[in-house]
Amino acid sequence: MAAPVRTLCCSVLRLSSRQFSTTCGVQGGEQWRKEHGVARSGTEYGPLTDLPDWSFADGRPAPPMKGQLRRKQEREVLARRIVMLNNEMDRGMEAWSEKREAAKKMEEHKKSLLLKPKGKLLMKKKSQS
């Protein structure tokens, strides 16, 4: 029973006018854009995507479009994340330096607790200095 359905399905696909592609689309010029420090595609950022398409005749700007608002919100979220991660990194560096200073103090304290030279060893040490 499953074989006829499969055959029917394959024959319908062969007869349909739609073409299915399983390859990934390659952007023309993407490598050149990367090498020259430009966006991967022309629709990521730049005047064509960031500036309004039109304005009123009296000079007032057009209201922002949905895509512009979305991109603005995405940039704000990214900026907030960058600031948060930067603050987290600063706190981590401060904690690391405090930990290192505490380890130095502990080492100095351990050295101060060691036995001190006495008698003849102390005299030798003084004479050498």
From TrEMBL:
Signal peptide: none annotated. InterPro entries: Ribosomal_mL52. GO terms for cellular component: mitochondrial large ribosomal subunit. One of its GO terms (molecular function) is structural constituent of ribosome. GO terms for biological process: mitochondrial translation. It is found in: Mitochondrion. It comes from the Eukaryota. Pfam families: MRPL52. Keywords: Mitochondrion, Ribonucleoprotein, Ribosomal protein, Transit peptide. Residues 35-54 are annotated as: Disordered. Its main location: mitochondrion. Transmembrane segments: none annotated. Belongs to the mitochondrion-specific ribosomal protein mL52 family. PANTHER family: 39S RIBOSOMAL PROTEIN L52, MITOCHONDRIAL, LARGE RIBOSOMAL SUBUNIT PROTEIN ML52. This is Large ribosomal subunit protein mL52. It comes from Sparus aurata (Gilthead sea bream).
